[in-house]
């Protein structure tokens, strides 16, 4: 799949050549601070056992072109940087490029996308990821939106090639809109099969999710969102540190409140709690995180 989708980013970034109808461009800047009671880099099982405060910066660039009425092309770039006060080993910089092409048929929409991600830990590259997706979606009566997606993801780790993996995922999400589309409730499910170079890192997993979001107040200045996430992973082989197959699960609860001073300037507040359970002791923990960010949308 990834070879089929590789041209997406090139097509997206050159789409203005073919654009006949409309185009939109946006930029979002965020700057703020966060505190987490447990620092974790899940992909390489790096755990701190303690908390720390961090500063956070991000830049998000997006472009959308509508071509020939029914063909839509999206492209973008995002970079985020998290730097901790006393825990340099957890400083994280992530860059992401993406492209998405979709066609709106009268009965449904079909699309494909590609994401290329590079992550650096304490200034050193540790993860390269290529995520490729095919999806099918439909809006019913302007109130119910359903999207099904098949995703193929390759991850490579510079410091531990045994963790290099391919992940195949099937998922579906349903959105219910109400309150003149100012509010929605969504439910989702995904099934994952991850195959690593070293079999102890391979697993089969299930993920569940639910979100409630609404806009309130004069000119919709208040935007509230509550999320719940759950996953369970059953590993396929003996995990050396525990001499048995590993099993992980996690509940994640998140509350977010955005207050817009103007249409472009907002204060974003987020509270998140992770409750992780595992027979691998370092991955069995509870963490609480708070984020306070200023956001500029252009």
Q: Rg, please?
A: 20 Å
Distance between the termini: 34 Å
Cα shape: globular
By DSSP (H or I, 4+ residues per run), the number of helices equals 2
The CATH class label is Mainly Beta
Largest sheet: 14 strands, antiparallel, barrel
Percent helix, as a range, is: under 10%
CATH topology: Porin
Strand order of the largest sheet: 1-4-5-6-7-8-9-10-11-12-13-14-15-16
Q: What's the number of domains?
A: 1
**Strand and helix order:** HHEEEEEEEEEEEEEEEE
CATH superfamily: Porin
Strand content: over 45%
Got a strand count?
16
Low-confidence segments, ≥5 residues, pLDDT <50? none
Broad structural category = mainly beta
Q: Overall pLDDT, averaged?
A: 91
Q: Which architecture would the CATH scheme give at its second level?
A: Beta Barrel
Short description:
This protein has helices at residues 2-5, 7-13; strands at 22-36, 40-41, 46-47, 52-67, 71-84, 92-104, 109-121, 124-140, 144-157, 165-178, 183-196, 203-216, 222-239, 244-260, 265-278, 285-297. With 298 residues, it is mainly β.
């Amino acid at each position: 799949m990834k070879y089929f989708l590789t041209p997406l980013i090139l097509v997206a970034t050159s789409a203005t050549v073919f654009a006949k109808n409309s185009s939109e461009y946006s930029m979002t800047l965020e700057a703020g601070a966060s505190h987490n009671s447990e620092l974790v880099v899940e992909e390489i099982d790096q755990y701190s056992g303690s908390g720390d405060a961090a500063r956070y910066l991000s830049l998000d660039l997006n472009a959308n072109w509508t071509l020939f009425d029914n063909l839509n092309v999206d492209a973008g770039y995002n970079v985020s940087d998290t730097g901790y006060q006393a825990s340099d080993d957890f400083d994280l910089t992530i860059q992401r490029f993406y492209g998405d092409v979709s066609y709106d048929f009268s009965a449904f929409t079909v699309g494909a996308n590609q994401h290329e991600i590079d992550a650096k830990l304490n200034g050193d590259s540790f993860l390269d990821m290529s995520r490729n997706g095919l999806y099918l979606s439909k809006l019913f009566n302007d109130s119910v939106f359903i999207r099904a997606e098949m995703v193929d993801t390759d991850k490579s780790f510079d410091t531990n090639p045994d963790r290099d993996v391919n992940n195949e995922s099937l998922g579906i999400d349903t959105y219910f809109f109400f309150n003149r589309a100012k509010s929605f409730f969504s439910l989702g499910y995904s099934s994952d099969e991850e195959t690593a170079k070293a079999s102890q890192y391979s697993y089969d997993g299930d993920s569940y999710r639910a979100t409630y979001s609404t806009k309130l107040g004069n000119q919709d200045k208040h935007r509230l969102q509550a999320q719940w996430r759950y996953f369970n992973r059953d590993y396929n082989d003996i995990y050396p540190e525990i001499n048995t197959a590993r099993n992980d699960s996690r509940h994640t609860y998140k509350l977010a409140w955005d207050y817009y001073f103007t249409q472009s300037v907002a204060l974003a507040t987020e509270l998140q709690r992770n409750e992780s359970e595992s027979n691998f002791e370092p991955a069995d923990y509870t963490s609480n995180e708070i984020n306070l960010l200023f956001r500029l949308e252009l």
